[in-house]
Amino acid sequence: MELGKTAFSSGHELIVHDSIDSTNTEAIRLSCTRDNPDPLWVLALRQTSGKGRQGRLWSSPPGNFYASLLLKNPCKIQHASQLGFVAGVALNTALKKIAPSLRTIILKWPNDVLLNGAKLAGILLESSGSQILDKSFSVAIGVGINLAFHPDDTPYPATSLASHGAPTSVSECVRHISDAFAQKLKIYDNGKNFQDIRSEWLEASYKIGTPIKIRMKSICDSENMIGNFGGINETGSLILNQGKKEQLIHSGDVYFAC
């Protein structure tokens, strides 16, 4: 198992586990003991406690892709959520090379990759270190891709590359994904060029004006908001257009309205 040439020349490193609880959990553990500031990939062929957003479990049988990229001080801590969009455009770039015949891959806010409207991949950001602005911190960018299998018990439909006649190997994904991340992180330049990433993310996302529903967790219950997708602003918040009213959504699950 090897990194791509661009990632390797950019100083990225790789650790491979046959089985581990969670690549993000391991990356965060390493952030507490690792002095080397170079980006580190933690890859597992199987996870026993894979994690998704909002505490959900991520089904992790052998044959799919599970990895986390550990970054030290990749941007200002208040801009850490932007790394989810960096990851999104990197995955979109890599998947075009891994499965060039598939034309219906789109990015869904805030951190999902869809194929024919079903979830193909997810991204999970977790941080460690100081919560004080401008102090040292680390971020683990977890990436899970359904290569050979996909779960059936998800809040919305899931799919895999194999289901669409595009089988691939974990080793091939490592090369393409690590290279794409190295390229997009260079463009991002510690947050200096987020607008370039934002523009690329919007090109790969659903069209402006698409009807969507936002499900947000409130203290008492889930709250739903319906409107049209208006893009994302300069910080990465979703813009929800409701007639003449514009709402900024900072967190929530997006569903396509019927």
Protein described:
This protein has helices at residues 5-9, 23-31, 83-98, 170-188, 194-204, and strands at 13-17, 40-44, 65-72, 105-108, 112-115, 118-129, 137-145, 211-217, 222-232, 238-242, 245-249, 253-256. With 258 residues, it is α+β, with helices and mostly antiparallel strands. The protein folds into 2 domains: 5-204, BirA Bifunctional Protein, domain 2, CATH 3.30.930; 211-256, SH3 type barrels (Roll), CATH 2.30.30. The strands form 2 sheets. It has a 7-stranded mixed beta sheet with strand order 1-2-3-7-6-5-4, sandwiched between helices. Helix 3 (83-98) crosses helix 4 (170-188) and helix 3 crosses helix 5 (194-204). It is globular.
Quick description:
The chain is of the alpha+beta class and 258 residues long. The protein has two domains: 5-204, Bira Bifunctional Protein, Domain 2 (BirA Bifunctional Protein, domain 2, 2-Layer Sandwich), CATH 3.30.930.10; 211-256, SH3 type barrels (Roll), CATH 2.30.30. The chain is 23% helix and 31% strand.
Key features of this structure:
258 residues; alpha+beta; BirA Bifunctional Protein, domain 2; SH3 type barrels; 2 domains; seven-stranded mixed sheet; five-stranded antiparallel sheet; 5 helices; 31% strand; globular
Count of the separate structural domains? 2
Q: Number of DSSP strands? A: 12
CATH class call of the largest domain? Alpha Beta
Cα(first) to Cα(last) distance is 43 Å
SSE diagram, text form:
Layout: H1 5-9, E1 13-17, H2 23-31, E2 40-44, E3 65-72, H3 83-98, E4 105-108, E5 112-115, E6 118-129, E7 137-145, H4 170-188, H5 194-204, E8 211-217, E9 222-232, E10 238-242, E11 245-249, E12 253-256
Parallel strand pairs: 1-2
Antiparallel strand pairs: 2-3, 3-7, 4-5, 5-6, 6-7, 8-9, 8-12, 9-10, 10-11
Helix pairs in contact: 3-4, 3-5
